[in-house]
Design a protein that fits this description.
alpha/beta; Rossmann fold; eight-stranded mixed β-sheet; four-stranded antiparallel β-sheet; binds adenosine-5'-triphosphate; binds magnesium ion
């Protein structure tokens, strides 16, 4: 194919991808897609719930259009299961596989979701499954800083076949430029796409579950009194008085159907204040967003011989 035809083909792919999303892309998403179009690897550092997955989806779409494969890696089985469901819905169950400690489904599919350790093991075993691999998505790539598991991410980034491009996604890498510069030393040209603005307003909620049934209730963690945000006394009552062994954890989620408007609540929230009538209850975080809500963003600091980002 001539250069002009390749460029046309890429423009067509991009247009068809963007027009198949149910929303117009954000500027940071377009910058990341531009990097993929230029043939680069990319690190996307953007707040939680800002839409980093779109970049992974574009890489996957490109791999499939080229007749190749893409692997989506996550550090958690639960997240792998969720991504497997999402990608199966988008590409059909025959084209998507799942490989975790618990599940081995359709491992030779062109799109396979797996825990990062599974990919590391495939690399060391020189698995034939790696043939035709075009992209590896490393979701939650800040796990590289984990003292016990971090080396797995480092080994994957270093030892993947040279023509495989990586898409690294994280909400909590603060030294993103430095990290991308290191990725570039081992994988070739790598763009750092950094978005600090939070495009989705997050609302702090407290989940209380009834012991006697499967019902859960979401209460606002804070209420406003005299112009100040104070812990919601309703939540304290529900967990302190009614539950003899409360586990207090706040939860945060995106609201307003994303850019649909500040102040709107996400659809499907539980009846507010309903736990008032609960005679007995248990409590806990309702979604994984609590991780990014409570943890301050930190640099990748795992001490490492190979990654200069690790010394930061
Ligand atoms: N440009 C956009 N406009 C509106 N909604 C969007 C846009 N991009 C993504 N979304 C929606 O935002 C929600 C969150 O997106 P996504 O799961 O990709 O966030 P994330 O950045 O990966 O968050 P996390 O750090 O929690 O993994 C999804 O429902 C997605 O469909
Ligand atoms: Mg994500």
């Amino acid at each position: 194919m001539t250069e002009a035809r390749v460029a046309d083909d890429h423009a067509r792919r991009r247009e068809s991808f963007e027009s198949s999303r149910p929303f117009p892309l954000d500027a940071f998403q377009r910058r990341a897609l531009d990097a993929i179009d230029r043939g680069q690897s990319v690190l996307v550092a953007a707040p939680t719930g800002s839409g980093k997955t779109v970049v992974a989806e574009y890489a996957i779409a490109n791999a499939l259009e080229d007749g190749g494969k893409a692997f989506y890696t996550t550090p958690l089985k639960a997240l792998s299961n969720q991504k497997f469901g999402d990608l199966s819905r988008e590409h059909g169950t025959r084209r998507v596989g799942l490989l975790t400690g618990d599940n081995s489904i359709n491992g030779n599919a062109p799109v396979v979701v797996m825990t990062t350790e599974v990919l590391r093991n495939m690399i060391y075993a020189r698995s034939s499954t790696l043939e035709d691999l075009r992209f590896v998505i490393l979701d939650e790539v800040h796990y590289l800083q984990d003292p016990y598991r971090g080396a797995v991410w480092e080994e994957v980034i270093i030892h993947l076949p040279p023509d495989v491009r990586v898409v690294c996604l994280s909400a909590t890498v603060s030294n993103a430029e430095e990290f991308a510069a290191w990725v570039e030393t081992v994988r070739g040209e790598t763009a750092a796409v950094i978005e600090e603005r939070r495009p989705v307003r997050l609302e702090h909620l407290y989940m209380v579950g009834e012991r006697s049934s499967d019902q859960v209730h979401l209460l606002p963690t804070f209420v406003e009194r005299d112009g100040e945000a104070r812990p919601n006394p309703e939540a304290a009552r529900a967990t302190g008085k009614l539950d003899p062994t409360p586990k207090r954890r706040a939860s945060t989620r995106a609201v307003g159907g994303r850019r649909a408007g500040a102040g709107a609540r996400a659809a499907g929230s539980g009846p507010r204040g309903a736990s008032r009538s609960s005679r007995s209850s248990r409590s806990g975080a309702c979604c994984r967003r609590s991780r990014s809500c409570s943890a301050a963003p930190g640099a990748i600091k795992r001490s490492s011989s190979a990654c200069p980002a690790g010394s930061g």
